[in-house]
Fold beta-glucosidase.
Amino acid sequence: MPHSRRRAIATRIGRSLVALATVAALPSALAAPAAVADAPRRAPYLDPRLPVADRVKDLLGRMTLEEKIGQMAQAERGAVDGDRDQITKLALGSVLSGGGSTPADNTPAGWADMVDAYQSKALATRLKIPLLYGVDSVHGHNNLVGATVFPHNIAMGATRDPGLVRREEQITAIETKATGPQWVFAPCVCVTRDLRWGRAYESFGEDPRLVIQMETGLEGFEGRRKGDLATNRHVLATAKHFAGDGDTVFGSSTSGTYTIDQGVTVTDREHFAAVDLAPYVVAVKKYGVGSIMPSFSSVDWKEDGVGDPVKMSAHRELLTDVLKKKIGFDGFLISDWEAIHQIPGDYATQVRTSVNAGMDMFMEPYSTPQFVQTLLAEVRAGRVPMPRIDDAVSRILKAKFELGLFEHPYTDRANAKTIGSPEHRAVAREAVAKSQVLLKNSGNALPLRGNQRVYVAGANADDIGNQAGGWTVTWQGSSGAIIPGTTILDGIKQNSSRVTYSQDASAPTAGNDVGIVVVGEKPYAEGVGDVGNGHTLNLSDADKAAVDKVCSAIRTCVVLDVAGRPQIVTDQLAKTDAFVMSWLPGSEGAGVADVLFGRRPFTGRLPVTWPRGEAQEPINVGDRDYRPLFPYGYGLRTRVRH
């Protein structure tokens, strides 16, 4: 997904300078179209009483080719911030914040002021077509410090609670829209079939039926009724990444050091339809999702002979013939971050191929001027037909009309006071508690009693950055106190007055009734987190040592795993009395303590299969040789302690 750390800062600055130079060199017709007279004040497209289709048709008929192509371009805020007039000159359709791309004042007001400043430049264009601003709100408005940060999707899959997912995404929509962005690049409706994938935590699970069940999040984002999108409680959603990105073959990626992310899905059309495509059918037919993001990955059809994979950004069969025509998707397609650059050929070939395949808007973060100039040349040369351009722009304009941006282009800040509110955090805390999966509970070790003396060890017990994971303030996330909230240790201390914490388990253990060791991963995102790219599913040596020491010294030993995917604990499991998968809980770590101490029952169930060893991957429910450590759907239950 988009991010602002994928390139070195020096490279980014260089690209921005190139972009500025390119803008200056563009033909004057693009910068200030004069072929069409200024729009009348009450042109039909400005009349909110007219049907959206009529407004789109009227506006499209008034647009020059330059204005149309501008609508198909999306720039990163870092590329336009030095010269915001680029938005006006290029008639840009959209701007985004990649992961970690925030205003200097990373507050609700700072965000709203920034987005509104960009919007004013869009409204300075001849036809005053408002800007669509996109952001990666993948587990809350996670770029904003102080927002409610929910558990990542894999944890939400463990809740088996579609209503809770709906509530979560509506809160995310409210908090996001109150700061300016009207469009989120979420949810990921991928089906994760290999835990070695660095994006496994962005998926609700390995079974397409579970993913479909959790697609209520689309309703939370966009609303249930016509007109909801135009309110201050909903945003345009993006179902991603179409399609098969969780089902790629390990070792097939050609993106840098990645091993599986952005790789190749080697499959037949029957399997692809049943597993990888199924969530998108529901997203379109049941929820009417407004935008879809094609994947970086490729598809290689077995029945056509393996060896000729096609990048999804170039896949006309899937983007146009299947998604738009057969399934009936009437929203618009947005390319992933520089995704078309992975299509074979020179830049003109990449642009032409993707547009003709069905892509509508292009996330070209630092090369939007080049994109605009290139597509103009391709259309004028007859290599991209005008009906394809008109189709793409009509879909984009449709979303803008449905969002009410022509009537209310600037940020409605009324809900800013609810960002990170106790009410919103209470929902996140409930999500954390319901996502906890109890995998072992010998002798009813859990729930704990408040009068027990508790020894807590492990770095992940008191690190809110680790428990939030990637896509938190920055693209990759980071360890430390990066957001407000409660750590797991904070939650334990809320339930017991007799707590000893030793991060490395070096403090004396004598005199304690219960030991709690919090193991797990450090933050990562996308292919950076792929196994084989500096990562492994195994516990760290420090985590193993802490489990060994605490579990051998204290009578009752509980281990919590704070990670984006199951880890290999086969050898450690026998040493524990209770073992809990805590996932990546986000800002409300106290929700973990709620189930540990019996304030809430354990009800979570595994959304993925837990392997015995890393070599067992990929392993999924329904496989012929299915002998996991814990099967898909497994989870013990407890009762509330009265």
Remarks:
- The mean pLDDT is 94.
